[in-house]
UniProtKB/TrEMBL annotation:
Start and end residues of each GGDEF domain: 209-337
Broad EC category: transferase
Species this chain originates from: Duganella margarita
Protein name: diguanylate cyclase
PROSITE patterns: GGDEF
Length: 337
């Protein structure tokens, strides 16, 4: 069984709730879950003390974090929730310092570091810089200048180190991702990336989002290699990938499925739209010069990514159509009915 057949496979399966979750979702939910036992005891203590304002802030944070966990768990949407969580945390932390004084400034450090776990480094740095500005305004006149300067410098340094660490980790992650999922010759996604995207689409919950799968294969490509050499064949593959990029939308995803075989996930395209896309690509390749003095054509099989079927079935159907296009004389498009 290939990875396209396994919903919920992988490292985060135990938290998947039936589908494979992105790492970002899991980190956000864990961060929120961790904040509940960290804040709740203080909220209860403040309640017992009768410090109503502090207790309300703590309880509101606990409630907000619980809501975020439920929201992310149910919808899988984490981007806006990540910004909201950071703003809740920062606001709660600043209000607590405002209410109870500089003694609670220790909360600033974990709060600010947590932003780098769930946001892009530049966004986290921006929110934290605004938070630091508000903190200085809150504490100004309430603590000695030397004390305030120490807080500013230490908070600033913590942010600087967290930013550098988070930025470098992001760069390394992108490099690893590219090495694992990009085809080194053409720069489009590789087969592993295709399988991941198909599995993600199979678990996508928006019923109105329809997509189609195109499998493209160069016709008689062996002749190009035999006649002009392997390096010339490589150039043809690169030019074809470039042509596909130009003739697809930015939401479509292109992959190299095998040696001279490519796949396109036409996002948001039903069968008719996908058939027009395929026909346009076929015509564009037929009229382009991918190899001087040698006309090159492609054959394309198209299948509809029906949610009632599995990714393996979409691939098998598109492959069957591709085979039919080849059998029909090549330089042709066949669409699954
Ligand atoms: N240059 C180059 N050639 C490749 C690469 N991967 C596969 N090929 C070649 O692609 C050719 C595929 O040949 P076949 O499977 O016979 O297919 P074909 O000649 O395209 O014929 P049809 O698909 O039946 O139209 C072989 O010559 C492979 O060497 C690659 O990365 N670079």
């Amino acid at each position: 069984m290939s990875s396209t057949d396994k919903p919920g496979a992988g490292r985060w399966r135990w938290l998947s709730g039936g589908r494979q979750r992105r790492q970002e979702e899991v980190i956000l939910m864990m961060l929120c879950a961790l904040s509940i036992p960290s804040i709740l005891p203080f909220g209860i203590y403040r309640l017992l003390q009768g410090s109503w304002a502090s207790a309300i802030v703590d309880m509101a944070l606990v409630l907000a974090m619980s809501s975020v966990i439920v929201h992310v768990w149910r919808t899988g949407r984490y981007q806006v929730a990540s910004v909201c969580v950071t703003i809740f945390y920062t606001g709660g932390m600043l209000f607590t310092v405002y209410l109870r004084g500089v003694g609670l400034v220790y909360w600033v450090y974990p709060t600010m570091i947590s932003a780098y776990f769930v946001l892009r480094p530049s966004v986290a740095l921006t929110i934290n810089s605004i938070g630091l500005g508000v903190l200085v305004a809150v504490l100004y006149g309430r603590v000695e200048m030397l004390n305030l300067a120490t807080i500013i410098v230490t908070v600033g340094l913590v942010n600087l180190f967290a930013y550098i660490f988070s930025y470098r980790t992001g760069v390394q992650n992108r490099r690893l991702h590219n090495a694992a999922e990009l085809d080194f010759l053409t720069g489009v996604g590789n087969r592993r990336a295709l399988e991941r995207h198909l599995a993600e689409y199979a678990q996508e919950r928006r019923p109105q989002l329809e997509s189609s799968l195109l499998l493209l294969d160069l016709d008689h490509f062996k002749q190009v290699n035999d006649q002009y050499g392997h390096a010339a064949g490589d150039k043809v593959l690169m030019r074809l990938a470039e042509l596909m990029r130009r003739h697809t939308r930015s939401s479509d995803r292109i992959f190299r499925y095998g040696g001279e075989e490519f796949a396109i996930i036409a996002s948001g395209a039903g069968l008719n739209a996908a058939a027009s896309l395929a026909e346009g690509l076929r015509g564009a390749v037929a009229t382009a010069t991918l190899q001087e003095d040698h006309p090159i054509t492609i054959s394309i099989g198209v299948s509809y990514m029906d949610k009632k079927q599995t990714p393996a079935e979409w691939l098998a159907q598109a492959d069957k159509m591709l085979y039919a296009a080849k059998q029909g004389g090549r330089n042709a498009v066949r669409v699954a009915s």
